[in-house]
Amino acid sequence: MGLLSGMACDLYDGKEGGLNAHPAIPADAIDLHTHSTASDGLLRPADVVRLAAASGLAVIALTDHDTTSGVAEAAAALPSGLTLLPGAEISCRVRVGHDRWVSLHLLAYLFDPTEPVFAAVRARLRSERITRAQRMVEKLAADGHPVDWERVRALADGVVGRPHVAEALVEAGLVGTVQDAFTPAWIGAGGRYWVGKDEPDVTEAIRLVRDAGGVSVLAHAFASRRGKTIGPDVIAEMAREGLGGLEVDHPDHTPDARAQLRRLAADLDLITTGASDFHGASKPQPLGAETTAERALDALVAASRGAEPVTGPVTEQDP
After folding, report:
1. What is the rounded distance in angstroms from the CA atom of residue 190 to the CA atom of residue 240?
2. 168, 222, 269, 288: which one has the fewest Cβ atoms less than 10 Å from its Cβ?
3. Which regions of 97-150 does DSSP assign to beta strands (E)?
4. pTM of this prediction?
C-alpha cells in the first residue's frame, strides 16, 4: 500500500496566511523540492506548508540549502492531510576531465540530521555560504556599488547566500530582477563579482547521505540554462557510488532533457522524481508546477532508514 493510500485531503480555502493557492494541481500531488527562508526562499517554513495545503498538495519535501533548520517549524504548522518529507539540498561538485569542475546539487531525503559527520559538513557549507556572500559584497563595494553587508544580512531570514546579494542589487536599482543579478556582469557563475566556494565531491556527498540513513537524488542535472552540466557517463558513475534517483521533471528541463534523463534512470535503475524547486515570488514556478509519482515516493521512503515522513511536530534540527 502506498504512502498516500487513505490519506485525507483537508484543504484550506486558498487564502490561509494571505497566500494564494495554485488552482491547477491534481489531487494527491507530491512536490519534493521546495525552499523557505531557512535558506533562500521567500516564505517562512510554516507558510510553505500552509500554501502547499491550500494548493492541494498531499506531500511536500522541504529541501533548504545545506540545512534542515526549517523542518521543525514546517512540521509544527502541518495542516491535516499534508505529509512532510524532511530533506536538504546539498552543494557539491564533480571533476570532469583534468581541470574542470561542475557544481551540482544533491537532494537528500529522510536522513538522520543528528548524524555527526554529515551534520558537520552541512555546518561547514553554511559557513562557506556566508563567507562567499560577504566577499561578493566587498567586491561590489570596492567598485562603488551601493550594496551594504548589513543590508544583505537583514534580507536573509536564514543563512545568507548569493540570492540575498541579488536581492540587494535589485533594491539598490543596479538590476531589474533577481534573475538579472545572476549574469556574468554581476554575480553569475564566473561573473565580475562572483566568488567560488569550497564544496565536497559528489561521491563524498552521496556517501554522507547514505551513511546518515538517507537517499540522494540528483537535482536538475540537465538544466543547461543554469550553467555547466554533466553527461550520462558521470551520472552512471554516481549511480555506482550509491545515487538513489534523478530529478527528471523540473521547470528548467527541456522536453528532450527529461526524455534523456528518464531513459538514463531506467537503464541505471534510479528513482525518477519531479518537483517545482519553489522559492516564492523570486522564481516564476508555483508549488506543484512539477510533481512526483506516488510509486517514486514509496521507493524513496523504502530506501531510507534515517528519518520518517512527518505528520506532526518534530524537535529542532540544524541551527
Report:
1. 31
2. 269
3. 100-109
4. 0.86
